[in-house]
Amino acid sequence: MKRIDLARAAGAIAVLALAVPASAAAVPTVTTTEAKLDSPGVTFLTDPTGGTLPSQTRYTVSNDGYAFDYAETNSVTGGGVLNYAVLPTAFRAPATAEEKRTYPAAQTDVQAHATCSGVTALTTGANILAWQSSDPAYNYIPWQKSSAGLGDDPAKWIPVVKTATGVDLSTAANLTTACTGLGGTYHAADTQSAIATALIANALAPVQKQLADLTKAKAALDKTAAADKEGRKAAEEAYQAQYNRSLRLKVATKRFAGGTGVLLVTGSVGDPVAVTLEVGKKQRRTLGASSRELFAVVEEIDDRGVALVTIKIEKAVAKTLAKHGKPIPATIRAQSGAYTKSAKVKLVP
Fold first, then answer.
1. By CB distance 3.0 to 4.6 Å, which of 12, 30, 192, 218 could disulfide with 83?
2. pLDDT at position 185, please?
3. Strand, coil or helix: what is 340?
4. What Rg, from alpha-carbon coordinates, does the chain have?
5. pLDDT at residue 321 above 70?
6. 116 neighbors 164 (Cβ within 8 angstroms)
7. Which spans in 85-151 are helix H?
8. CATH of domain 248-348
9. What is the DSSP string of 281-331?
10. 299 phi, psi to nearest 5 deg
């Protein structure tokens, strides 16, 4: 069985965590290219230069450890993701957030989020900066309730939008209608496709494999522990059933012919039980017995939790009973520790 080094797995996770920059420190870079699209009837044979093929602007946006490819599909110009490739760290350090947001060379046309244009409250610099850090990544306020996957957090812009427009993006049923209701125009985000999925997956695969193995091993241990717990519980219950039984008394018949009868006592294994047969004062005189206690014995409850006791009165008392010719009421008592059980019987000739 392959052993999993927990320390190495934890270390790998830590390394990956350090390799992905925190949202607060991340700034985007944007690479712009021009792509060609197919056009009906245009092939290499009809146009070897491709000069008549329509163009489409493509953007590669990387931020917060993620990279996505965007196609220019929403036709919105300006007010896009800011390109920090032209704003190196030392160069931008003295600049204010507003100066970074409006830096001409950093402007792009790629919108990673849906937007609502034409609403003054959504285009003011103060509101655009209100949901971002001192290094703003976007020259717009998103008009959507979910993240674009670039380290952006909806919890930061949703309150800004609500304060500025009264619209709660998190509960709005239709974002297009919510935008047009303010006199604005809704624009979907430029079309996104992940280009880093395989890279990220390959980087995480070894750690995920170890985590999966750990999860599987833990599940097996949990299952074994649960089975052991159930086994211990069953054993404990069996023990309790054997050694903590309540005292019970059952007679085979309530008519003891000739003063003889059989009774069954159940209780805790190994406990002694004292069994007596007693009659009242009047009945003792009738039988001529020397004591009200006609029979007494101490038995031990066996490993099955039972004691079988045979009661038999003295021969002289039995002869008197036979001469009396009538039933004599009697009481059987079984006592074990602090517990006592009794049963009424009749001694018959």
1. 30
2. 97
3. strand
4. 46
5. yes
6. no
7. 89-92, 97-101, 125-130
8. 2.60.40.2550
9. HHHHHHHT-SSSEEEEEEEE--TTSEEEEEEE--HHHHHHHHHH-S-EEEE
10. -115, 165
Domain coordinates of the chain in residue numbers? Answer: 6-195, 248-348
pLDDT digits (tens, 9 = 90+) for 203-214: 666 766 777 777
The CB density around residue 221, as the number of other CB atoms within 10 Å, is: 10
Where would I find the H helices in 166-288? 175-180, 197-243, 281-287
The Cα–Cα gap between 223 and 182 comes to 58
Q: Which residues pair with 36 in a beta bridge?
A: 55
Structure token pair of residue 112: 């990673």
The structure tokens listed for 291 are 């004591």
Provide the percentage of residues in the chain whose pLDDT is more than 90: 63
Q: Is 178 exposed, middle or buried (0-12, 13-18, 19+ CB in 10 A)?
A: buried
Contact 74, 88 (CB under 8 A): no
